[in-house]
C-alpha cells in the first residue's frame, strides 16, 4: 500500500477537522444544546476562516503584506447582494440563485484583484501594504456614496442621492447610499459556510502543494534567486492575489446573505477588519493553513464570549493575544512544541512496530 505524503496527510487532517467540527455542532444543535448567540456565530466564523486562509495565501505563502483584504470582501458582498436583489423574482429557487451569487461575487472580486494587482504587485514590503490599505478604504467609501436602482427603462446610477436617479414609478432602489442594500435574501447558513471553507482549503492547499506553489514559495524565500532560474514573478504574484481576492469575494457574498441589511458603515469592511484578519493569520502561524482556521474560530468567538466582563473584555482579549503570540513565536516554545511532536511521532512509530 502506497504511503500518503506529508502534505496529503496535512490536507486530509484539515478537511477532517472542519468536517468533525460541523458534525459535532450539528449534533449539539439537534439536541437543543446550542444557544441562540452561538447559532449567530456559526456563519460569521466560516466567513472569517475563509478570509484568514485566503489572506494567508498572500502573507504566508507569497510573503507579501496586504492590508486591503476586507475591500475584496466588500466587493463580493455588494456584487452578490445586487445580483440576488435583481433576480429575486426571476430565479425563485434560492440555492441556485445563491450559488450564482457566490460565483459572481468571487469573479468580481477576482477581477478587481487582477486590476489592482497588475500595477500594485510590482511594489513590495511597506509600499505594497500602504497601497492595498488605500485600496480597501477607497472601495469602502465608494460604495458608501453609490445610489443604484432599476426600472423598466434599465439601470440607473447616481453619486448624489436616490432622488437624482430619476426612477420610474415601477423602479426599485437596490443601493441607497450610506443606507446600503436592504432586503437581501437570507440564503446563508452554516452548511453552506462549511462547504465554502472546504472549497477554500481545497483550492489553497492544492495550490501550495503544486508546482506553482513551489514557485510561489521560492519567490517568497529569495526573489532574486527565483527570478534568476526563470520564474515569472509578476505572473505568480498576480495569480496568488487574484485567487485570494476571489475567495474573499465568496466570503463577502456569504456575509451579505446572512443579514437583511448590508452597509459599509462600521468596522466590517474598513482597515480595522483587514488588520483583524491579519491578526488571525499571524497568531495562527504565517504560512500555517491549519493555524489560520483554528485562530479565526477561537479569536472571533472569544471577544463575544467575554462580554460579561464589560469594560475588561478587550483587556483580557489583548492578554490572550500576547500569550498566544509568545507561545507561537518564542524560540523556547518552538523547541517545546517540536519536542512534544517528536515524542508523539515516536509513540505512534513504536505502536506500528508492535502491531507489525
Notes on the structure:
This protein has a 3-stranded antiparallel beta sheet, covered by helices on one side. A two-stranded antiparallel sheet has the order 4-5. It is globular, with a radius of gyration of 22 Å. It has one domain. About 70% of the residues lie in helices and about 5% in strands. The chain has 13 helices and 5 strands. A hairpin with a 2-residue loop joins strand 1 and strand 2. The mean pLDDT is about 85.
Radius of gyration: 22 Å
Gap between N and C termini: 14 Å
Which spans have pLDDT < 50 for at least 5 consecutive residues? none
Give the class from helix and strand content and strand pairing. mainly alpha
Largest sheet: 3 strands, antiparallel
Helix count, DSSP H or I runs of 4 or more residues: 13
Q: Which band does the percent of strand residues land in?
A: 5-15%
Query: What number of domains?
Result: 1
> What integer is the average pLDDT?
83
Task: Record the SSE blueprint.
Elements: H1 6-30, H2 36-62, H3 69-86, H4 94-120, H5 126-143, E1 147-151, E2 154-158, E3 172-176, E4 181-182, H6 190-208, H7 211-221, H8 223-228, H9 233-256, E5 261-262, H10 271-284, H11 289-305, H12 313-329, H13 331-355
Antiparallel strand pairs: 1-2, 1-3, 4-5
Amino acid at each position: 500500500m502506497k504511503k500518503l505524503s506529508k502534505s496529503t496527510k496535512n490536507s486530509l487532517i484539515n478537511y477532517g477537522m472542519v468536517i468533525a467540527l460541523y458534525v459535532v455542532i450539528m449534533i449539539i444543535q439537534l439536541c437543543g444544546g446550542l444557544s441562540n448567540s452561538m447559532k449567530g456565530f456559526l456563519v460569521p466564523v466560516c466567513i472569517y476562516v475563509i478570509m484568514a486562509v485566503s489572506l494567508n495565501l498572500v502573507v504566508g505563502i507569497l510573503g507579501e503584506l496586504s492590508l486591503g483584504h476586507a475591500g475584496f470582501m466588500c466587493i463580493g458582498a455588494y456584487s452578490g447582494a445586487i445580483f440576488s436583489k435583481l433576480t429575486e423574482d426571476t430565479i425563485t429557487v434560492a440555492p441556485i440563485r445563491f450559488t450564482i451569487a457566490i460565483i459572481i461575487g468571487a469573479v468580481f472580486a477576482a477581477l478587481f484583484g487582477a486590476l489592482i494587482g497588475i500595477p500594485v504587485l510590482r511594489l513590495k514590503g511597506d509600499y505594497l501594504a500602504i497601497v492595498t490599505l488605500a485600496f480597501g478604504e477607497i472601495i469602502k467609501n465608494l460604495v458608501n456614496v453609490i445610489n443604484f436602482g432599476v426600472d423598466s427603462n434599465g439601470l440607473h446610477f447616481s453619486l448624489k442621492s436616490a432622488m437624482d436617479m430619476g426612477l420610474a414609478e415601477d423602479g426599485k432602489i437596490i443601493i441607497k447610499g450610506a443606507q446600503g442594500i436592504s432586503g437581501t435574501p437570507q440564503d446563508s447558513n452554516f452548511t453552506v459556510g462549511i462547504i465554502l471553507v472546504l472549497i477554500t482549503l481545497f483550492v489553497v492547499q492544492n495550490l501550495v502543494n503544486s508546482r506553482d506553489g513551489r514557485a510561489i514559495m521560492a519567490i517568497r524565500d529569495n526573489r532574486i534567486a527565483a527570478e534568476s532560474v526563470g520564474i515569472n514573478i509578476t505572473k505568480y504574484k498576480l495569480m496568488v492575489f487574484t485567487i485570494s481576492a476571489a475567495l474573499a469575494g465568496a466570503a463577502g457574498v456569504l456575509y451579505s446573505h446572512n443579514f437583511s441589511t448590508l452597509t459599509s458603515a462600521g468596522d466590517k469592511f474598513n482597515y480595522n477588519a483587514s488588520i483583524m484578519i491579519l491578526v488571525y493569520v499571524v497568531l495562527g502561524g504565517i504560512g500555517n493553513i491549519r493555524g489560520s482556521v483554528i485562530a479565526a474560530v477561537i479569536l472571533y468567538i472569544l471577544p463575544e464570549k467575554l462580554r460579561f466582563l464589560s469594560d475588561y473584555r478587550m483587556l483580557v482579549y489583548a492578554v490572550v493575544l500576547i500569550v498566544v503570540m509568545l507561545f507561537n513565536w518564542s524560540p523556547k516554545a518552538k523547541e517545546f512544541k517540536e519536542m512534544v511532536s517528536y515524542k508523539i511521532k515516536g509513540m505512534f512509530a513504536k505502536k506500528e512496530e508492535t502491531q507489525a
